[in-house]
């Protein structure tokens, strides 16, 4: 496929780099180190089983669910905009 001034495979390289960046970001956001016995947010005790399963856990399940919902809601907007706005 002709790509103008770009070399063959440049688009795929861009896609691969974007995926690698997303995976790195996800891995970096995972908890590390020793798990806490009590939640950073509400000071509730974190169950032993959760501390064993999730290394480096810092939040109880309830607080983690709240944080996850906030993060999900922040990522729901359309960054591209509508086709109508691109045609103007």
How is the topology of this model organized?
Blueprint: H1 10-29, H2 48-53, H3 61-74, H4 83-87
The percentage helix is: 40-55%
**Mean residue pLDDT:** 82
Distance between the termini: 29 Å
The shape, in one word, is: elongated
Q: Low-confidence segments, ≥5 residues, pLDDT <50?
A: none
Radius of gyration: 20 Å
Structural class comes to mainly alpha
**Total of helices:** 4
Question: How many strand units?
Answer: 0
H/E order of the elements? Answer: HHHH
Strand content: under 5%
Largest sheet: none
Highlighted features:
4 helices, mainly alpha, 88 residues, single chain
Structure in words:
The chain is an all-alpha fold and 88 residues long. 51% of the residues lie in helices and 0% in strands. The protein has helices at residues 10-29, 48-53, 61-74, 83-87. The mean pLDDT is 82.
Question: What's a concise summary of this model?
Answer:
This protein has helices spanning 10-29, 48-53, 61-74, 83-87.
């Amino acid at each position: 496929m002709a790509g103008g001034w770009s070399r063959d495979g440049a688009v795929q390289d861009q896609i691969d780099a974007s995926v690698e960046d997303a995976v790195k970001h996800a891995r970096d956001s995972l908890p590390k180190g020793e798990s806490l016995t009590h939640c950073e947010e509400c000071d509730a005790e974190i169950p032993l089983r959760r501390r064993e399963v999730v290394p480096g856990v810092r939040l109880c399940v309830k607080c983690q669910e709240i944080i996850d919902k906030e993060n999900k809601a922040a990522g729901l907007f359309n960054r591209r905009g509508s086709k109508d706005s691109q045609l103007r």
